[in-house]
């Protein structure tokens, strides 16, 4: 297994919240405990798309987070990281954020309004990486960190109950 220390594994998903006003607004609008999402690439680093910055590998400076370990092979972990590293330097998709805001507030019925497929928001970057893996298509309509965490939690619960039945 590709351990990166502190019970984190390369390719695990990290969900984040902070005390910033932007984090608070995102959590309130999405009815979530989490406002940001990224992927662990080593013990102290993650890859993320962050407001005002392009996709990059950055030092994990987050203090308040939850990690979801994916039940995938080492090869799948490496493929996930490789795919995400290929996305480095993609710009942040501000139009997508505005479109999601209009959707959440009920001004649009289109979950993907103003999505620029050459740019990413945090959840979109992680989602595109996860959709490269087998058996992750259930996440296809996710647009927020909360959507992703709910989908992964449901998948983990299903997997646990299936393992108990076996």
UniProtKB/TrEMBL annotation:
InterPro entries reported in the protein's UniProt record: Papain-like_cys_pep_sf
SUPFAM superfamilies the UniProt entry points to: Cysteine proteinases (SSF54001)
Protein's recorded name: Permuted papain-like amidase YaeF/Yiix C92 family enzyme
Organism of provenance: Paenibacillus ferrarius
